[in-house]
Amino acid sequence: MTPFGERVRAMRAERGVTLKQMAEALGVSSAYLSALEHGKRGRPSWPLLQAIIQYFNVIWDEADELQRLAELSAPRCVIDTTGLSPRATAVANRLAGEIAHLNEEEIGAIDAVLDAARRRRSGPAA
To answer: Where does the record place the HTH cro/C1-type domain (predicted)?
Structure first.
């Protein structure tokens, strides 16, 4: 399941909406919506993402969060290391080979390292 799929499924559950009801309202098949939730389809298209946001009648922060989760939800991602160091290429390939064997705590630790690196690049908050 992708982060986007997990959130959409939770929103359906919170509102008591079935997969079939939502799929009909969006004009997609239940099978497609299920595959999207489970990460068997790529990210939703921009028009579909907007339709989902409208369907759930969410605004501002929650809509931004759904968009962010959609961006993070490509189930098959590619890391382009062209022009980076050999070590960067090695790390990217190791991560691709090892991620299926990491537990949630280990994945969380990697995520925390990436968050810390982003904060360092962004500099101090004003």
So the answer is: 8-66
